[in-house]
Amino acid sequence: MKKSYLIGMAIIALLVIGSVGTALLMWKDSSKKMDLVITYSNKINYEPFIVAVEKGYFEEENLNITTMVVTGGIQSAEAIMTGAAEVGAMGDAPAIMLLDKNPGARIICRYSGGEGIHRYIGQDYILGPKDLEGKKVGIQMGSSTHGSFLQWMSVNGVNASKVTLVPISPSDMPTAMQTEQIDAMAGSEPWPTNVEKLCGDKVHQIGDSSGLSNTFPMIFMASQKAIQEKGEAVKAAVRALQKAVAFINQNYEESAAICAQKIGLTLEETKKCMNSEFFSIGFNQTDLGSLHQTANFLLSSGKISAIPDFEARMAQGFIPIENVIMVARVEE
Q1: Do β-strands 87-90 and 184-188 pair in parallel, antiparallel, or remain unpaired?
Q2: Quick one: which of 48, 78, 267, 307 has the fewest CB in 10 Å?
Q3: What residue ranges of the chain are covered by domains with CATH 3.40.190.10?
Q4: Is residue 79 within 8 Å of 203, Cβ to Cβ?
Q5: CA dist 41 to 49, 124, 150, 188, 229, Å?
């Protein structure tokens, strides 16, 4: 009897030790950092990513991120296309072109936007939109600004076939304007402000993207592989961005200061640039309508082969349901 009792106690002890060991292993696995490669730009449009990195929000969400900082959204789209990055931030036009070229790419959410985020700066002899006909406009091809500029020209009666778009790196735009290699430039901040700072009274704003009935949503995109293999890491990244957006909206001055250090503008210049944007995580009817509007212009300009099915390409379960408002398909 005593022997049976001792054997029973030994078995129980082994079971307890095994359970504790299993629990410790599970705890160790759950505390392991999740790797994720994120691409974005040091620009106003990408402020939630800048703030999330600087405030340590990605680390708080158990992420070990590798950041790929590029000059614009089109490079982020290319990085996801080639597999160099797993998730990335970009404007509407690069996101649409990525969806067109890469069947596996998915929309995670919109994190920012604003009707007037794209500005068009001309030499002093460019008095209005029609004066651009026969002139050269420096632009980052395939960018969100590129899509907005096509729409702006159409609304203002500019014959786009008579305007020469010059592919140029945004960092070279100030010098190109100063030396009059180009007659105008189009870009989002800080590029227009950089041109104005260098060229002074020789240049002026001839228009912006406001009034086009488009909010130009900034999109957080992911590769199919990231969705399938690193879904929890992508969700953690969204939570980090939610924290960053909340911080920006509640701490405007400090957020501007963080961003200013990265984009090379003064605090006051950065705050002025931020005034044209909103920061919010979600995806709604306005975003969908804006994407369709931009896609139509890209299609008519031969930049994409077909308008993507945005609803079908929206990754499910990555943002709170109250932030997602899907609507009936927009008829083309």
Answers
A1: unpaired
A2: 267
A3: 34-114+215-323, 118-208
A4: no
A5: 9, 30, 23, 12, 25
Average pLDDT, the chain: 90
Whole-structure pTM over 0.70, yes or no?
Answer: yes
What's the CA gap between 205 and 74, in Å, rounded? 24
Q: Give the β-pairing of 136-139 and 164-167.
A: parallel
Assign a CATH topology to domain 34-114+215-323: D-Maltodextrin-Binding Protein; domain 2 (3.40.190)
Helix, strand, or coil (residue 157): coil
* b/e map 161-192, b = 16+ CB within 10 Å: eebebbebebeebbebbeeeebbbbbbbbbbb
Class of the CATH-defined domain 118-208: alpha beta
Summarize pLDDT for 55-96 with one digit per residue, the tens. 999 999 999 999 999 999 999 999 999 999 999 999 999 999
pLDDT given for residue 191 in this prediction: 96
For 305, the token pair is 């082969």
Could you give the strand order of the β-sheet that contains 203-208, starting from the edge strand earlier in sequence?
164-167, 136-139, 184-188, 118-123, 203-208
